[in-house]
Design brief:
Blueprint (H helix, E strand, L loop, with lengths): L7 E2 L10 E4 L13 E6 L7 E2 L11 E4 L11 E6 L7 E4 L10 E9 L1 H5 L5 E4 L7 E5 L9 E6 L2 E6 L11 E8 L4 E6 L2 E7 L13 E3 L8 E12 L5 H13 L2 H15 L4 E3 L2 E2 L8 E5 L21 E11 L2 E11 L6 H9 L7 E3 L2 E2 L7 E8 L3 E3 L2 E4 L5 E11 L5 E11 L4 E9 L10 H4 L3 E6 L2 E4 L26 E10 L5 E9 L11 E7 L6 E7 L7 E8 L4 E7 L5 E6 L12 E2 L16 E10 H11 L4 E4 L5 E4 L12 E6 L4 E8 L1 H5 L7 E9 L12 E11 L2 E10 L13 E7 L7 H5 L6 E5 L12 E11 L2 E11 L5 E2 L6 E4 L21 E2 L16 E8 L2 E8 L2 E7 L12 E4 L10 E9 L2 E8 L7 E8 L13 E2 L8 E3 L2 E13 L5 E8 L8 E7 L1 E2 L5 E2 L4 H4 L6 E9 L8 E10 ...
Parallel strand pairs: 1-19, 18-22, 23-29, 43-70
Antiparallel strand pairs: 2-22, 3-17, 4-5, 5-7, 6-17, 7-16, 8-13, 8-17, 9-10, 9-16, 10-11, 11-12, 13-14, 14-15, 20-21, 21-22, 24-27, 25-28, 26-27, 28-29, 30-31, 30-41, 31-32, 33-34, 34-35, 35-36, 37-38, 38-39, 39-40, 42-44, 44-45, 45-46, 46-70, 47-48, 48-49, 49-50, 51-52, 52-53, 52-54, 54-55, ...
């Protein structure tokens, strides 16, 4: 009987007894295309500053090396030494007008870039002039500051970039960089080593770069440093090369460095660390993340994916040669090892135990779920199941509640007949209240759809919706991979940003959730960990996530599409994956966070962990689905779904007395609104003047007054080319004013805009009157508090920036925190010279604020410094985006430096100095907030501090993050542990009221006239043909789970049917007029007889006519003045007066109307006998 072993044996590192090592042959250098070739410069000479143009028939002249040193030439390259733009570093000047009037072009550069270039701004080459203001055509390999290799073209002051999704370049290694602009198709493309790395729309061409008077290699029109590295070839075509032609050029240029490239290929093979091995089971063939391919001399025995078909017991061993080939740009190296395949030794019992381990019923299922299929080569049978659970082809429960069941399955080996039983503990969720939840990543498209690689390569979630899925969070990511290491003190770099693909969601043994995924470099390229490991994270509720780290599964052949399922039968997690060669593997763990609990690595497919096709989800790439209870689905819907208004509460009626006055102030001030997540909000009411005037308060009755819920939609954009906006409600000496300030961002140039750097403010009585619409209509004017050339308190000349200005009241004074910058080494404004600074509004001798619209009423700008007077940022100098807030009596500054958020305590009495050391409380650590966290702003709500900040670099991918801390409890907010950061953006690019808004960020909290909370922010638009960032204003909603909602649309905020409100006004009839007087009856004895006395007092404000009737007579007074009294005596002639009553009638004229009144006063018996 033949057995079929599938256990894996690791390749053993031993003496290389049968290994053959070889290097791929390199052919003669292929000819490059010459059609349209206008310039070709080979930097292979050994001396001289002039480099001839070898393009056939070209009229363009030689290139000239500037600042040449003899050692710059090596005979195979020109070394570019780098340095400041104004230094003696070398660069290459190209002929003028090299692409004059050309609507298509291809620029080829064979270069090496230093690590400094990959970390910073530079121009690899530039077609243009010495000005950065209006036009240029360039390429860059900058992988820092949120950038990646790109091609760019600036025309009429508008810069357009087409950028790669990831870096893809290694420092100090030769790389072919090809930029193509195709005027016919309106596109630009960037190729790295002959493969297209980026393509995007490009509506302008090199012909739009009119002034081509300073074309260069290694020198930028900006004050960027000179390019550092080396160049061996440079070509310019006046047409767009095809992809095949670009590949041909790359392969041709590679041959120049064949020896270096071959050494790189050999290094890849050496890193595999493989050698000869003897085995009877499957083997692991590493591929170095797909850079190595394998061939076999006998695939029937050892396949190229490592599958081993062992001979039967007693048969001889079979030697097989496996050859690994690594290729770098067409230059190859090979390595051959011998695998000696021994006869199988696996017993029937061992085999059935191995096969049965591949059958798993997930620990949580939905009633009606299919019973997993039997593993290949086996059959299964149900032997028992807990009462209440029926197991056939499906697993079903009749319970309306979750039911914990035990299901026993017998697995039979079809080849041997051996059997084993597996008993699973399974929670069966009722179908009626259970929802399937899809976890997935997307295929990247464009940043214009909020689906660039930084977003697409994260875990998304979607809820079951009929036969398809309803994506949450607008199909944006929810779980993102963290940086590979903690961001260093100097700041987050591109090299440690990570993404993920193939997320797999699973139920943990303890009832929480786990996520397994393949971790990648930012943009999706391999970061090296995929060879052996997967990323593991946990979540208790899928609303927040804790990344545990990488889990090594014990292979080096690639871990693709990792999946995990809890195997309750063995009390272990089963982890399965696909190797780079396409072979299925699995292993087990008792604890995924403890590699010492890992079991053997085996070959085969595990049931119970299958993926899902994601039907109907746009750009779905890979994922799986799990069942979740209604409470989880509901919470996800609240957090990541849309929230909409459902009801407006009926208003309490109002009563007014007949003849009384009625105004809008007497009516309800706000309407209470309800939403479908269970949250509440209120909005002011605008009462209809005509409806109010129709209430006739002279006539009793019930009237209906109508009004509307106030929810004005602000202009979009609110203000053009105004970034980092701030709106502040200010009490100016008892008058409510609204102040607006922002960064001038004309065509995305906030450093030195074409219209001159300045710091504009607007002042108005309402929010609406701050808008461009109000300015354009002449209802408001913009005032420059500062302009380039103004000096600070130290006498320094501020020449640019004026970034991120914010209004605050600090120490009782209206203040502006902002960042001016000064001239750099090139004599132009340089952002790196910027310092967080403050100006304050002056006050008069009585402490009243002067007019904030008058620039002279503000103090000179002072830099904010540390407590010892030293600079905030001693590493990079720049400090920016400063904000101010108070908590528990302590004042704080927050700001950005070193690409992160810092905090320190301060004393409002001296707002230019910190009182504690700066502490980093938040650094960018995800692809969505990559390399920069800035623009903090803090608001207190329901006992929490909500700090919004901006992530990613300015532009279309800008996002808003959120961190929270406890408020009002004397928490030390300079302790990073006091702050909790959300794993995903709280606000991001998306469709708002039917139109895309991209790059939403740098927001601040504010309030409107009705005390509604506002979110004031910028987004990147092309409004009116301008490419800068524009200001927007929205109201904030607080969701039922306590988080702010910044993107509630008009119909979601107040449903159309709920916008009209009404209140019942009841005019009550005026009460009948009455007369106020008092009457008392007493008795006295006179000569043994009773005399009755009646005393009447007029307590009214008019004179009364009185008539008093007693059993003993009637008396009258024609007019008793107000406040006066009259007394009547009645003689009874009785010794004993029986009890009785006296009637007092009064009359008077009140307001022209006769009014009467009657009082009856009783008296007791009186006796004088």
């Amino acid at each position: 009987m033949r057995l079929f072993p599938r256990r894996k044996a690791a390749l053993v590192v031993t003496a290389i007894s049968a290994m053959v090592l070889g290097l791929g042959a390199t052919g003669a250098q292929a000819a490059v295309p010459d059609q349209g070739l206008v310039a070709q410069y080979d930097f292979t000479q050994t001396s001289g500053a002039s480099v001839p143009n070898s393009a056939p028939g070209s009229s363009l002249g030689a290139a000239t090396v500037q600042n040449l040193q003899a050692t710059d030439w090596t005979g195979s390259q020109l070394t570019l030494r780098g340095g400041a733009k104004t230094s003696t570093g070398n660069w290459v000047r190209l002929p003028n007008d090299i692409l004059q009037g050309k609507t298509s072009a291809t620029v080829v550069a064979e270069v090496k870039a230093s690590q400094a270039m990959l970390n910073g701004f530079h121009f690899l080459w530039n077609i243009g002039n010495d000005s950065s203001a209006t036009e240029y055509f360039f390429a860059s390999l900058n992988c820092g500051s949120g950038r990646a290799p790109l091609v760019g073209l600036k025309s009429a002051g508008v810069e357009r970039l087409v950028q790669s999704s990831s870096c893809g370049v290694t420092a100090n290694q030769w790389v072919s960089v090809v930029a193509v602009v195709d005027g016919a198709s309106g596109t630009a493309s960037l190729y790295i080593d002959g493969k297209r790395a980026a393509q995007g729309a490009m509506p302008v061409t090199p012909a739009n770069v009119v002034d081509q008077s300073l074309n260069a290699i290694g020198r930028a029109p900006w004050p960027d440093p000179l390019f550092q590295g080396a160049i061996s070839a440079f070509r310019v075509y006046d047409r767009a090369l095809s992809a095949a032609e670009v590949a041909q050029v790359s392969d041709s240029d590679a041959q120049t460095h064949a020896a270096e490239l071959q050494a790189q290929a050999q290094a890849i093979l050496t890193s595999l660390n493989v050698s000869d091995v003897q085995t009877s089971t499957d083997i692991d063939l590493p591929t170095s993340s797909g850079r190595v391919t394998w061939t076999s001399s006998n695939p029937a025995v050892v396949a190229t994916d490592g599958t081993v078909t062992a001979p039967l017991a007693g048969q001889p061993a079979i030697p097989v040669q496996l050859t690994a080939t690594a290729a770098v740009r067409g230059v190859t190296a090979t390595k051959t090892i011998t695998v000696t395949v021994l006869p199988s030794t696996e017993s029937a019992e061992q085999r059935i135990q191995r096969l049965a381990q591949r059958f798993v019923i997930p620990s949580v299922i939905e009633s009606g779920a299919a019973l997993p299929a039997a593993p290949e080569g086996t059959t299964i049978a149900v032997t028992s199941a807990t009462s209440g659970v029926a197991v056939t082809d499906t697993i079903s429960s009749s319970s309306e509640e979750a039911l914990d069941a035990t299901i026993t399955i017998r697995v039979t080996d079809s080849a041997t007949g051996a059997t084993t039983d597996r008993a699973f503990t399974v929670r069966v969720l009722p179908a009626a209240t259970t929802t399937q939840l899809l976890a997935y990543n997307r295929t990247p498209t464009t940043v214009n759809e909020a689906n660039n690689a930084d977003v697409a390569l994260s875990m998304h979630l979607a809820l079951e919706d009929g036969a398809g899925w309803s994506p949450l969070n607008e199909n944006y990511g929810i779980f993102f991979a963290k940086t590979s290491t903690t961001p260093p003190a100097s700041g987050t770099t591109e090299s440690i940003i990570r993404s993920l693909r193939s997320p797999h969601l699973f139920h943990l043994a303890d009832g929480g959730y786990g996520i397994a995924a393949t971790r990648t470099a930012r943009g999706g390229a391999s970061d090296g960990t995929q060879a052996s490991s997967f990323l593991f994270a946990k979540s208790s509720d899928l609303l927040s996530y804790r990344e545990i780290g990488l889990v090594n599964v014990g292979v080096t052949s690639g871990v693709n599409e990792p999946a995990v399922v809890w195997d309750s039968a063995s009390q272990r997690y089963v982890v399965s994956w696909i190797s780079d060669a396409g072979a299925p593997y699995y292993t087990t763990f008792a604890d995924l966070a403890d590699v010492s609990t890992r079991g053997a690595v085996l070959r085969g497919t595990v049931t119970g962990s299958a993926g899902n096709p994601g039907t109907g989800v746009a750009n779905f790439a890979s994922g799986n689905a799990v069942p979740v209870a209604a409470s989880i689905a509901d919470a996800l819907q609240v957090r990541f779904g849309r929230i909409a208004n459902t009801d407006v509460e009926a208003l309490d009626g109002v009563e007014v007395e007949q003849g009384g006055a009625l105004s809008a102030a007497d009516l309800p001030e706000r309407a209470e609104l309800s939403y479908d997540d269970g949250s509440k909000a209120s909005r002011a009411i605008a009462w209809d003047a005509a409806s109010l005037a129709a209430v006739d308060t002279s006539a009793p009755g019930t009237y209906e007054v109508t009004g509307s819920v106030k929810a004005p939609q602000y202009a979009t954009p609110f203000a053009d080319e105004r970034a980092d906006p701030s709106v502040f409600r200010f009490d100016w000496n008892g008058q409510q004013k609204f102040l607006m300030i922002a960064t001038e961002d004309l065509n995305l140039n906030p450093i030195d805009p074409a219209n001159g750097p300045h710091m504009p403010i607007r002042i108005a009585d309402t929010i609406e009157e701050l808008s461009d619409d109000a300015v354009d209509a002449g209802r408001n004017v913009e005032i420059d508090l500062l302009r380039a050339g103004d000096t600070d308190a130290d006498g320094g000349v501020m020449t640019g920036c004026f970034w991120a200005p914010e209004f605050h009241v600090i120490g009782g004074k209206l203040s502006i925190l902002f960042m001016p910058c000064y001239n750099g080494s090139n004599g132009r404004p340089d952002m790196w010279t910027g310092r967080a600074s403050i100006i304050q509004l002056k006050q008069d001798a009585q402490g009243a604020d002067l007019d904030p619209a008058v620039p002279a009423n503000w103090t000179k700008a002072q830099k904010v410094v540390r407590s010892d007077g030293s600079i905030l940022n001693p590493i990079q100098s720049i400090s920016l985006d400063m904000t101010y807030f108070q908590d528990s009596g302590q004042s704080y500054y927050m700001w950005q430096m070193l690409g992160a958020i810092f905090i320190a305590k301060m004393d409002p009495a001296d707002p230019t100095r910190l009182t504690s050391a700066p502490v980093r409380i938040l650094a960018p650590e995800y692809a969505w907030d990559n390399t920069i966290a800035e623009g903090p702003n803090v608001h207190v709500h329901d006992g929490k501090l909500y700090m919004i900040y901006s992530g990613s670099t300015v532009g279309d991918s800008y996002t808003t993050g959120l961190a929270t801390a406890t408020a009002g409890q004397n928490v030390d907010l300079t302790d990073p542990a006091a702050w909790s950061k959300l794993n995903y953006p709280i606000q991001k690019s998306g469709v708002f009221n039917g139109a895309w808004q991209l790059g939403t960020g740098h927001g601040m909290w504010s309030h409107d006239e009705d005390d509604n909370l506002l979110y004031v922010f910028h987004a990147r638009t092309d409004h009116d043909g301008l490419s800068g960032r524009d200001m927007f204003v929205r109201r904030v909603h607080w969701a039922a789970d306590g988080l702010p909602v910044f993107d509630m649309e008009e119909d979601e905020e107040v449903a159309p049917d709920n916008r009209a409100v009404k209140v019942a006004v009841t005019v009550t009839a005026a009460p009948a007029a009455t007369l106020d007087y008092t009457a008392t009856v007493t008795a006295r004895c006179v000569a043994g007889k009773v005399v009755q006395t009646v005393l009447i007092t007029n307590t009214d404000d008019v004179a009364l006519a009185l008539q008093t009737t007693s059993p003993y007579g009637t008396k009258a007074t024609a007019s008793l003045a107000a406040g006066k009294s009259v007394s009547y005596a009645f003689t009874t002639r009785l010794a004993t007066m029986p009890p009785g009553s006296v009637k007092v009638d009064a009359s008077a004229t009140v307001g022209g109307t006769a009014v009467t009144g009657t009082q009856t006063v009783t008296y007791p018996q009186a006796n004088c006998g």
